[in-house]
Design brief:
Number of helices: 6
Largest sheet: 8 strands, mixed
Distance between the termini: 35 Å
Number of domains: 1
CATH class: Alpha Beta
Shape: globular
Structural class: alpha+beta
Helix content: 25-40%
Strand content: 15-25%
Radius of gyration: 17 Å
Length: 226
């Protein structure tokens, strides 16, 4: 089976995404990209994640052609393609409908540095892309317009998309961005949140580069540990 390891991992993380509450029902989608082949493995459209098997995962190229698989791919495959085209270092992407990120996106607001872990996105403010119908190239193009240096983008009236050097990192970023969104929402309910300055966030993001355990020989730290 083509990209067997990646398909197994996507099926596993689909169950994690549902059980963690990042997405409900069949919403949300996950992909892994292999730059050597130019292929992307992506979750199928409309299948319950607890029923999804590795063979249900679809392999595509970045021109939206199906390479392997019998299922219809996620309707958001264009969104994932844009992430890989704009983030050469990205090897995985996660799209969620997590509650607080979606709440902030329904206000068409960016996510701000109300908590330092936002620095995992590589920026002090996560942008919000303009609304477009789900599954359309217009949505993907709107993300492309605002993504800049960020590893995460809110989708207006929709949800969140993140990317990372591994699926574990992309998923972890989605979890942490959801936490920051909850803090922004909760603080806003009580008053005006105090936002960390860009200078302080520069210090945080630099510190992230050396956070955690030392890298093994041949490994490169990605600067997203926290």
């Amino acid at each position: 089976m083509l990209m067997e390891k990646e398909r197994i991992e996507i099926a596993e993380y689909g169950r994690k995404m549902s059980s963690s509450g990042l997405s409900k029902g069949t919403s949300g989608n996950i992909s892994i990209y292999d730059p050597e082949t130019g292929y992307m493995a992506i979750s199928p459209s409309g299948l319950d994640y607890f029923s999804t098997q590795p063979e249900d995962i679809v392999v595509m190229d970045l021109k939206n052609n199906i390479i392997d698989g019998t299922r219809k791919p996620s309707s958001e495959h264009g969104l994932h393609t844009v992430m890989y085209q704009n983030k050469p270092e990205a090897r995985a992407a996660v799209h969620t409908h997590s509650t607080f990120c979606t709440t902030i996106s329904c206000l068409n607001m960016p996510l701000r540095a109300v908590h330092y872990v936002i620095g995992g996105a590589g920026v002090p403010e996560v942008p919000c892309a303009e609304y477009a119908t789900f599954g359309t190239m217009e949505l993907a193009e709107n993300v492309e317009k605002v993504i800049g240096k960020s590893k995460a983008v809110l989708l207006a009236n929709h949800g969140l998309v993140t990317c990372g050097p591994t699926l574990a990192k992309a998923f972890g970023l989605a979890v942490n961005v959801e936490f920051v969104a909850e803090m922004q929402w909760r603080a806003s309910c009580m008053g005006n949140p105090v936002v960390l300055s860009n200078a302080e966030m520069d210090v945080v993001m630099e510190s992230f580069k050396s956070y955690g355990q030392p890298s093994k020989a041949g490994e490169k730290k990605d600067g997203t540990g926290y």
